[in-house]
Design brief:
The chain is of the alpha+beta class. The strands form 3 sheets. The protein has an 8-stranded mixed beta sheet. Strands 5-4-9-6-7-8 form a 6-stranded antiparallel beta sheet. A 3-stranded antiparallel beta sheet has the order 10-11-17. A hairpin with a 2-residue loop joins β7 and β8. The relative contact order is 0.18.
Amino acid sequence: MKKSTKNRLDNVLMWLRILEDRNFNTIEALGAFIPTMDHMDNITIKNKDAKHILLAHYDVVGIFVTHKDEDGLKFDTIGTSVAQLADKTFVNQRTGKEANVVLNSAHLRDGHEEVKITELTLLSEDAEVGDFLVYKPYSLKIGDTLIRPYLDNNISVALALAFGDKAEVVLTSQEEVGCSGAKGVKLSDGIKDVLVLDSAFDVDSVGLDDALITKRYHSGLKLKGGDGLVLGVNGRCTKSLVEELKEELSENDIKHQLLVTNIVAPTDIEELQTRFVDKRFGFIGIPAKGLHGARENIRISDLIEAIKLLEAVLC
């Protein structure tokens, strides 16, 4: 590995630690920069010499406390499922204190049928209506595998920040709940090329079976951790920019796999294309398992390939 690549990797991992130390409160973690935030909570870090924009969504999944009744605190889940939340430890972004979510189950008789009822209970001494709770930070490295909560999309945020000296960085809000941030974000007029960074579904992610993967990726293509970065070559990406990125991949012998079809779920790049028709868009992803769970994981080798591509394009 080249020294410059190793330095960038160290910088990415540093930003991951900073985000965790701030309980994934991104704006509080950006003290090294001078960020601006718009009315949609999108964050922009300007760079007067930049020829590219690196864009990543920074919002994370979790629990939003909605109200309180005689049974206790009630909440909505954001971007995740009951199964992923149950029996997990969370941290209140406002107070920094821990809380737990417990899954209670009861079997009730409905005529001749037994019905299983499940309910999530939030156990917290200090949570109030309006609080947002995130998974408790956790970090483990086993060989080439990095395990943490919120690698979707903190790995992309950290990757963008690690190249903040070479590109303008835009971090969008609310991607997990309908891409609302992308609908209001402003992109600099003088920069034509936008590289959208995000996680990509590993074939084994969240227990998805082959049939569902085939439905999600209509070609049946299965992205896999350890097979390199993911380059979007589908209709959401600008063909001329994709061809330039493919040339860089070839010339620099960068390990990669191609996302050739559109996934079912909406992403920022889809919204941005309709608003900024004068810009070119590319997608660079890192395969991740366990998306939206407390133990997401990626391969560091895939991250290194993404760093190598950004070095080739930006440096």
